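ok new one. same drill as before - structure tokens go in, u give me an amino acid for every spot. 224 of them this time. try not to just spam alanines like last time pls lmao
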């Protein structure tokens, strides 16, 4: 299996990736095809696909933030069961992040991720009928990887940039130091403002959430 970075919207692998995104995720979570041009060309955004026998069978997008010494995993996709795609992507991503941190004279502190919470809504998620993408399964896998739930009610702006708030997720952090049990609230607020700066139409629920975060000092890291 190959771990290949995509940096151009015209890369044939990107068309396969975008098709896979549409098959796996709900529409409000998928950026339109043409809107990927700038993110793919951004050196700070790293989009890699897992290619098996010429086909895109998985993918991950993530970022490293120098100065904060943290990462953000935008998504991880497993397209087929039985190929250990999730483990392959997680290992390759971690090696790349450690290298990026080292290049910046830093040590990786940890990484953020948004994680679906099926227990919050009791909703059934199809996710393309791919069982490894089932939110109950993914949540347990991410817990095993070391992600912890940050203790605050979370919403995010829809990637459709229509001003709608998307709920049903937790914002989580995977600390390099597994004994860490809290995180500065200001770091979470500043990170989210930076991460979602590309969206101009923020819902009021999100703005209120940021305001509450900025009024706190610490946030607990809870079991996922």
């Amino acid at each position: 299996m190959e771990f290949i970075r995509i940096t151009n919207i015209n890369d044939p692998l990107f068309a396969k990736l975008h098709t896979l995104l549409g098959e796996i995720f709900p529409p409000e979570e998928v950026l339109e095809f043409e809107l990927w041009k700038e993110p793919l060309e951004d050196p700070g955004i790293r989009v890699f696909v897992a290619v098996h026998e010429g086909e895109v069978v998985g993918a991950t997008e993530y970022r490293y933030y120098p100065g904060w010494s943290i990462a953000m995993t935008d998504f991880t996709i497993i397209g087929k069961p039985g190929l250990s795609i999730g483990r392959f992507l997680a290992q390759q991503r971690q090696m790349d992040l450690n290298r990026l941190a080292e290049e910046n004279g830093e040590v990786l502190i940890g990484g953020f991720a948004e994680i679906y919470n099926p227990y919050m809504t009791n909703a059934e998620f199809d996710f393309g009928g791919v069982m490894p993408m089932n939110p109950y399964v993914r949540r347990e896998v991410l817990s095993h990887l070391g992600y912890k739930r940050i203790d605050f009610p979370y919403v995010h702006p829809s990637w459709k940039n229509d001003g709608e708030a998307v709920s049903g997720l937790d914002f989580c952090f995977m600390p390099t130091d597994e004994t860490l049990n809290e995180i500065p609230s200001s770091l979470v607020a500043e990170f989210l403002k930076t991460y979602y700066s590309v969206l101009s139409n923020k819902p009021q629920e999100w703005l209120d959430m940021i305001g509450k975060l900025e009024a706190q000092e610490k946030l607990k890291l809870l079991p996922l």
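The chain is about 35% helix and 25% strand. and btw Residues 1-108 form a domain with the Aminopeptidase fold (CATH 3.40.630.30).
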